[in-house]
Amino acid sequence: MIAIKIIEAIANCFYVFLLMIFIRCLLTWFPFVNWNNPILRLLREATDLYLDLFRKIIPPIGMFDISPMIACFVLVILRNATVYGALFLFSALGLLR
């Protein structure tokens, strides 16, 4: 039972980070957003650490930055690999019924 809760917590962490990236991208559409707000600064700093990895590789196409879409796609793949890997590990150890 606890193994399922651990797997759910891992999956939820990935979903929260995906939501943070989505909110960050939506906020860039509004020019009047004050990025000096402590909450928005924390959101920007947390997501830009991950997004900058993809921005270095994928240049903007015109005025569009597609790196967040690729970053979200990779994050979903990492989430699935982690969750299914944890399921396999816990079932191999006999912790799942």
Describe the structure in your own words.
Helix 1 packs antiparallel against helix 3. The mean pLDDT is 93. The longest helix is centred in the first third of the chain and has 26 residues. The chain has one domain. It has three helices and no strands. By secondary structure, the protein is mostly helical. The chain starts with a helix and ends in a 5-residue tail after the last helix.
Short structural summary:
With 97 residues, the protein is mainly alpha-helical. It has 3 helices and no strands. It has helices at residues 2-27, 38-55, 67-92.
The radius of gyration over CA amounts to 17 Å
Biggest β-sheet, characterized?
Answer: none
Percent range for β-strand residues: under 5%
Total DSSP E strands = 0
Low-pLDDT segments, ≥5 res: none
Provide the succession of SSEs. HHH
Helix content: over 70%
What tags apply to this protein structure?
mainly alpha; 72% helix; elongated; 97 residues
SSE map:
Blueprint: H1 2-27, H2 38-55, H3 67-92
